[in-house]
TrEMBL record:
Entry-linked Gene3D superfamilies: Glutaredoxin (3.40.30.10)
Signal peptide (from-to): 1-20
Designated name of the protein: Transcriptional regulator
Keyword Metal-binding: no
Taxonomic path: Bacteria, Pseudomonadati, Pseudomonadota, Gammaproteobacteria, Vibrionales
Annotated source species: Aliivibrio sifiae
């Protein structure tokens, strides 16, 4: 009887314990569009927003950084972003795309998240920045909340690496080598 109760309890808990993303290696990321805000552009000293979708990811080797609109999520993989900046990958062949999930921010900080995203775009003008007001990307890809996800794609848009959470120094090295191997 105890085994039956334990089995029933385990079965009930399984759906709440599964936090796996639905991103598959050697496949493109699941298709999704961001229509609320979208990609940030800084033109003539003003910020502009344009609808964004995953079709725009093809053509360059990319690191996608999908982060919750929280400073802790941004800091989680800051070491990787610093390592990428130091590498000075050719802009014609490589681009970082940061997707910020504004829906996954601390209540009342949405305006701060937006202004922080805009300042990051100003500082890293060569990077692609996407502000996702409704968390469309995180929902479509089944990503964990309050987190950072790193995805490496080849020029065809196929996923070569994916990890949710903080990357170890060895994983950072692996990502850098993976990018180099694409050129």
């Amino acid at each position: 009887m105890k085994k039956v109760k334990l089995l029933a309890l385990t079965t009930c808990l399984l759906p709440s314990l599964s936090f796996a993303h639905n991103i598959m290696l050697n496949q493109p990321v699941p298709s999704v569009s961001v229509t609320q805000y979208g990609e940030i552009f800084y033109v003539d000293n003003a910020f502009q927003y344009s609808k964004w979708n995953t079709e725009q990811l093809k053509g360059k080797v990319r690191v996608l950084q999908v982060i919750a609109g929280r400073s802790s999520a941004k800091a989680m993989n800051a070491d990787l972003m610093s390592a990428i900046t130091l590498e000075k990958f050719p802009e014609t062949k490589y681009q970082t795309t940061t997707i910020i999930n504004q829906d996954d921010s601390i209540w009342g900080t949405g305006g701060f998240v937006k202004s922080s995203a805009e300042e990051s775009k100003k500082e890293f003008s060569w990077s692609s920045m996407v502000l996702d007001e409704n968390g469309t990307v995180a929902k479509a890809w089944d990503l964990k909340e309050e987190n950072s996800t790193i995805i490496v794609q080849n020029q065809q848009g196929n996923v070569l690496f994916v990890q949710e959470g903080k990357l170890s120094p060895n994983k950072i090295k692996q990502v850098i080598e993976l990018i180099h191997n694409q050129f």
